[in-house]
């Protein structure tokens, strides 16, 4: 059975830790996930199948931008969790090489992580669906908050943030796969491992795979061990085992 003592031991002897994170790492910061007890699939505050579907976006973008206004306002005022900070510390110590994230909340960067592969994209930029004109975060955010649907200055087309919708190709997958193949320890944190192809990444790992996640998971990765507990509690324990003085 995997526990925090064993996990701390694995972290200590690894040099190329790779973390794959999902929405569960950010729930403690106040951002709802999809499939957790207060997730969007449960509360139906927004319907993820419509909100993040590219065909729905092109049919009626108001559904997505209602969510986006809410999300951007939330993200601006939330702070990274202890676990985001811990992963940034492991990177600074040279133990962790990269964070592959399915999240679009920017909290890894806010916590100080440098090598972040955002396979589902981010809000940091946007592009016009009509003419392809690029928009910076500030410009995009201003338009999202000011208009029901943000329109392009050049062609009046709809501007879409560069996040990956259902029906669109994921980003940085080659790099993510290569990182996974180099991993001597692969941590899947706060992800139900149900969204493909990101959910395939653990199986490429050269080292042990440990999932830190509560709740129902997708297809089991062969040989994966799990700690089914609260994420911040797990990493607070791991951190105090590794550096008892902190
Ligand atoms: P998911 O399918 O919602 O899974 C999250 C998992 O985390 C669930 O199994 C939860 O039970 C578990 N969980 C939540 N909180 C905790 C906690 N404190 N301790 C332990 N376990 C916990 O999310 P995935 O990321 O796997 O699904 C992929 C989608 C969700 C990605 O495309 C994300 O972009 C998308 N998403 C991202 C955000 C964000 O950026 N913060 C928010 C909501 C959804
Ligand atoms: Zn345009």
Automatic annotation (TrEMBL):
InterPro entries: DHS-like_NAD/FAD-binding_dom, NAD-dep_sirtuin_deacylases, Sirtuin, Sirtuin_cat_small_dom_sf, Ssirtuin_cat_dom. It holds the Pfam family SIR2. PROSITE patterns: SIRTUIN (PS50305). It is an enzyme of class 2 (transferase). The keyword Zinc applies. The active site is at 120 (proton acceptor). The keyword Aminoacyl-tRNA synthetase does not apply. Keywords: Metal-binding, NAD, Transferase, Zinc. CDD domains: SIR2-fam. One of its GO terms (molecular function) is NAD+ binding. SUPFAM superfamilies: DHS-like NAD/FAD-binding domain (SSF52467). Its EC number is 2.3.1.286. Residues 1-246 form the Deacetylase sirtuin-type domain. Zn(2+) binds at residues 128, 131, 152, 155. PANTHER family: NAD-DEPENDENT PROTEIN DEACYLASE SIRTUIN-5, MITOCHONDRIAL-RELATED (PTHR11085:SF10). This is protein acetyllysine N-acetyltransferase. It comes from Candidatus Cryosericum terrychapinii.
């Amino acid at each position: 059975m995997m526990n925090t003592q064993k996990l701390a031991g694995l972290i200590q002897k690894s040099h190329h830790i790779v973390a794959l994170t999902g929405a569960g790492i950010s729930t403690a910061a106040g951002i709802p996930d999809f499939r957790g007890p207060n997730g969007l699939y449960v509360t139906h505050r927004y319907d993820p199948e419509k909100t993040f579907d590219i065909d729905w976006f092109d049919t009626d973008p108001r559904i997505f931008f209602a969510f986006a206004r809410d999300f951007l306002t939330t993200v601006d005022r939330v702070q990274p969790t202890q676990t985001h900070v811990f992963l940034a510390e492991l990177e600074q110590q040279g133990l962790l090489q990269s964070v592959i994230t399915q999240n679009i909340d920017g909290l890894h960067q806010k916590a100080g992580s440098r090598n972040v592969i955002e396979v589902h994209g981010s809000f940091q930029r946007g592009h016009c669906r009509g003419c392809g004109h690029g928009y910076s975060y500030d410009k995009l955010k201003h338009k999202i908050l000011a208009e029901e649907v943000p329109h392009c200055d050049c062609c009046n087309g709809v501007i879409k943030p560069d996040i990956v919708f259902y029906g669109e190709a994921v980003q940085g997958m080659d790099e993510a796969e290569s990182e996974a193949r180099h991993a001597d320890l692969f941590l899947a944190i706060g992800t139900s491992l149900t969204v493909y192809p990101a959910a395939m990444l653990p199986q490429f790992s050269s080292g042990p795979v440990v999932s830190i996640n509560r709740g129902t998971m997708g297809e089991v990765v062969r040989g994966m061990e799990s700690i089914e507990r609260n994420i911040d509690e797990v990493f607070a324990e791991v951190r105090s085992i590794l550096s008892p003085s902190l």
